[in-house]
Amino acid sequence: MRSSVLEHDLSTRAALTDGSVPRCVAKGSGSVACVEAVLVATRWIPADVMELLERHGGLVHVAAARKAGVDPSRVCRLAIAGHLTRIAEGVYADASMLVSLGDWQLHRLKARGYLFSCAADACLTGWSAAVTWDFPTVGVPPDVPVVVRPKAQSRGPTTTTFGRVLVAAVPDSHRVQSSSIRIVSRAWTVADLARTAPVPHALVVADAAVRQGVDLDSVLQHMARWKGIHRARWVTRHANPAAESALETLGRFTCMEFDLPMPVCNAWVGSSGPVYRVDGLWPFHWSAYEADGALKYDNRPDASSIVAAQCEREFYLRRLGLDVARYGWDLGFRRRATLAEHFWALLRDNPAG
H/E element holding 204? Predict the structure, then answer.
C-alpha cells in the first residue's frame, strides 16, 4: 500500500507541474488521506502562468495566455484542480488569493475580470467603477459587476452569471481609461450612483469626490431626463469636501435626515488659536461630535497611545467648554435614529446662546 501511495504521490506532483489533474486515487482511507495531504502540499501554479497573473494584476485571460504561448487547456486544468477560479468568461484568478480578499476587494477584482471578457466599448460603471476609483464604499457590494455600453440598434441590457451590461448614452469625455481599465469618469460614477444608490451611500462617495476636486455639476446636464436625476441633484448640492471619512458623512447625513441643526465639518477649536479639529461642531451650542471608526483602534500596536491621546484631547475640549458626543459604525450606519437621539440630547442640554 505504501508503494502505491508513493507512486501516486510522484505522479500527482508531475501532473500538477503542468496544470493537469490526477486521474486516480489509491484505495483505502489511509491512502486517501495521504493523497489529500499531497494535493495540499503540491498546491501551486506553474511559473509561466504565475507570471501572467502578476502581469495582469492577479488575472489571466485565456486569450492573453495563448498569446504568451501558454496553452489555454492548461489554464482550464488548473481551474479544475482548484488552483485557479473562473471569475468571468475566459478569465481566471488565483484561488488562494481570492479567499484573502474582503467583499469590496473581491468585487473590484471580479469587475476587472468581467470587463476583460466584455466588448471593447464596455466601461465599468456604478459601484464597480466606484471601488475601482478607490472611492469609499459602505454596505455590501452588488452581486455581480456592472459595465455600460453605448446605445446601438437592437442592443439592450443583459445579465449573465458573471455580470450585467447596461446600455446608455455616456459622452466620450466621460468614457476614460485608467491603468488599462476602461471606466466611466469619476464625476459620472458619482452622479450615476446618486441616481440609484441609497442616498447616504451615494453622499459618502460624493463627499470623497468633491474633496478630490471633481466637478459633479458638469455631468448632471447629460442626465437631465434620466430617472432619479432629482436625487443626483440633491446629493451633488449637499456634497461637502470638508468631510474626510465615510463615518463623518454619515453623521452629517443623520443631521439632515432628522432635521437637526447642521454642524460645521472638521472645525478647528482652541482657547486662543486652533489646537484641535473636531469632526462636527455646533458652535452656538458649544457642542461637537467625533466619529470613531474601528480601524482607529482595532489590531494596532499603538492602540494604547491612540486612546491616551484621545483622552487628553477630550479633557482639553471639555475644559474649553465643549460637550462632546462620540459614535461609531453601529450608530452611524445601522442605527441613525438612535444617533439622532444622542445628538438631540446633546443640543438640548446645551441650548444655543
Answer: helix 199-211
Per-residue pLDDT band at 104 (split at 50, 70, 90): very high
What is the CA 335 to chain-centroid distance, rounded?
22
- Using CA atoms, how far residue 269 sits from 169, 247, 287, 317, in Å, is 48, 21, 11, 8
| β-bridge mates for residue 86, sequence order | 92
At 286 the pLDDT is 94
Q: How confident is the model at residue 201 (pLDDT cuts 50, 70, 90)?
A: very high
Do the Cβ atoms of 132 and 108 come closer than 8 Å?
yes
Cα 232 from chain centroid? 21
Give residue 309's pLDDT band: very low, low, confident or very high (50, 70, 90).
Answer: confident
Number of Cβ within 10 Å of residue 223's Cβ equals 20
pTM metric for this prediction: 0.80
DSSP annotation string for 287-328: EEEEE--GGGTTT-TTHHHHHHHHHHHHHHHHHHT-EEEEE-
In the sheet with 146-149, reading across from the earlier edge strand, the strands are 158-159, 164-167, 146-149, 123-124, 181-184, 175-178
Q: Which three cell numbers stand for residue 210?
A: 468633491
pLDDT band at 157 (very low <50, low <70, confident <90, very high): very high
Let me know: does 293 contact 245? Beta carbons within 8 Å. yes
Contacts (Cβ under 8 Å, ≥6 apart) of 280: 248, 251, 252, 255, 263, 264, 265, 266, 267, 288, 289, 290, 291
Q: Which residues contact 290 (CB under 8 A, 6 or more apart)?
A: 278, 279, 280, 324, 325, 326, 327
Question: What pLDDT, in 10s, does the model give residues 47-100?
Answer: 888 888 888 888 999 988 899 888 889 999 999 989 999 999 999 999 988 989
- In the numeric block, the cell 437637526 is attached to 260
- What residue ranges do the domains of the chain occupy? 2-98, 103-238, 248-349
Q: Assign domain 248-349 one CATH number from 3.40.50, 1.10.10, 3.40.960, 2.30.30.
A: 3.40.960
Q: 337 with 249: CB under 8 angstroms?
A: no
Instruction: Express the helix, strand and coil content of the chain in percent, nearest 5 each.
Output: 50, 15, 35
